[in-house]
Specification:
88 residues; single chain; 3 helices; YefM-like fold; three-stranded mixed β-sheet; alpha+beta
């Protein structure tokens, strides 16, 4: 494992990528404190994909939105427009 400061990493980026690709861990530090690690893709953790949203999931569950779902809420409109009457 090799540790390099950020400035050195910027100036020698290509060679550091080659070292990481060959299996060596490259720690990048800022002001002497490790901030990141460059590793080979073979050793990099794989990200788990986000779950796929299934539209219409509740369609067959018998759930219906109330008729007043889109009606304005007087308390919320008072926050936007003040205590005066809301414009129509």
């Amino acid at each position: 494992m090799v540790q390099v400061n950020l400035y050195e990493a910027k100036t020698q980026f290509s060679s550091l990528v080659d070292r990481a690709a060959s299996g060596e861990d490259v720690v990048i530090a800022k002001n002497g404190k490790p901030r990141a690690v460059m590793v080979s893709l073979d050793r990099a953790p794989t990200a788990t994909p986000a779950p796929v949203r299934e539209f219409g999931f509740w369609k067959h569950k018998g759930y219906r939105l109330p008729e007043t779902f889109d009606d304005p809420d007087p308390e919320i409109e008072a926050m936007f427009y003040g205590d005066d009457e809301t414009p129509e």
